[in-house]
Request: fold
Amino acid sequence: MYRQGDVLIVPVPKEAAPASDHGLTRRPRDPRGRLVLALGEVTGHAHAVVGPGELLREPGPFATAWLHLPEGGRVVHEEHAAIPLPKGWYRVVRQREYLPGAVRVVSD
Reply:
């Protein structure tokens, strides 16, 4: 299990990964060629993955994202050390916080 800031990256066995991308949105790479897991609203900094692979998202603000890295990759961020990820499938979870009357995804 890996954590960088407000993003949790959990390895999952191939059998637990989505069987198809039906109902999932394939996320495009950003202009720097990265798969962006979370983008800071204030700073513009991003938790992102570099390396070959794909990022699939379920619809909805609290939805799960699935990361497939057939050759491994690295999670990078402007203010954190890079984290190497071995090849495989991962579930990406954004940290949430409770505010009276609401739950929201944490962002910087």
Q: What stands out?
A: The two ends are 22 Å apart (CA to CA). Residues 47 and 77 are 5 Å apart (CA to CA). The chain is about 0% helix and 50% strand.
